[in-house]
Amino acid sequence: MPAYIIFDVEISDMAQYQEFMARVKPELETAGARYLARGGVHKVYEGDWQPRRIVLLEFPSVEAFETFYHGPAYQDLKSIRDACSSARLVAIEGLALPES
Q1: DSSP bridge partners of 87
Q2: CATH number for the 3-41+51-93 domain, one of 3.30.565.10, 3.40.640.10, 3.30.70.100, 3.40.190.10?
């Protein structure tokens, strides 16, 4: 079952964050992840959540995400991300959607 990963990111150093992005994209591809949304316009309809920059990823499974997240490649890159941004991160299992 696929896993959907929701990041709510606040970027404090865009140049360093872009370095992180350039290096993390190949790692995500290797892990079988794909971007579904990244930094697009968003609007809150209910509640007091005030998201900053939303990133939505799909992984093949929660296990695939956890292997990626806890693995040495991402943990090395996470230190770059942590130095230039702060984030909230949630994973949720979901149903596979048919490709268009």
Answers
A1: 9
A2: 3.30.70.100
